[in-house]
User: Fold this.
Amino acid sequence: MSTAPAVPPVVPTVAPLAAQGLTLAYDQLVVARDLSVEVPRASFTVIIGPNGCGKSTLLRALARTLKPRAGQVLLEGQPLDRLRGKDVARRLALLPQSPLAPESITVGDLVARGRYPHQGLLRQWSPADARAVAAALDATEVADLRDRYVADLSGGQRQRVWLAMALAQETDLLLLDEPTTYLDIAHQVEVMDLCARLHEEGRTLVAVLHDLNQAARYATHLVAMREGRVVAEGPPADVVTVDLVREVFGLACRVVPDPESGTPMVVPLRRATPTA
Assistant:
């Protein structure tokens, strides 16, 4: 008896998150004009660029915490500004830069706040919420910290707890604004390894990073920005070149294969030594 071949799952062709013709500004300061970008589905997209180029501003617009002056952001093809807040929060989670926890809150209580988008007048705390919180704590390896106060944790532990809160939202999209800021190198790698694992499990991640070599190692898709515009995007091997680093960062360098991952690694050139 013959068996019909398995039908592959249908993958939506629309980008899960996209910006079209954005003008972004703070009061009278215009950061970007006519800015467009698409986040590939199931990618780990990292936005790079020098300070003040608009990286975090773009991420805030994608997360609906900054309203564009012009243009629109699309979430699964729908205008983001036309969706209800809770509808957005069920589909998109944001870890902002340097988040602050309320006074005297435990890890478990903070992570449980990630379930807010799934609750309402007719749906209070449920076994599904408890399971989601437990899964988020396990995924970020902070379950043993559940009863500790967030204020008493190390920087790396706090960052994992905030990630756990975002994971408790159970969204397919996760946005991270400089998730390794203020962390030492060991904790930076710890957080980035966790993000890579979340991506491997099927989530679409979008992160802003300062470290170009970390971005090249972990990203599947890079977006390079300068002065409020996208100057290059694509796989790290295509984007991270000597010319691109010079154009975007004003840095003379060599680009060599990372001996551990094989991804592009930027090695700054030594300054010329003055002659006697």
About this structure: Residues 185-200 form the longest helix (16 residues).
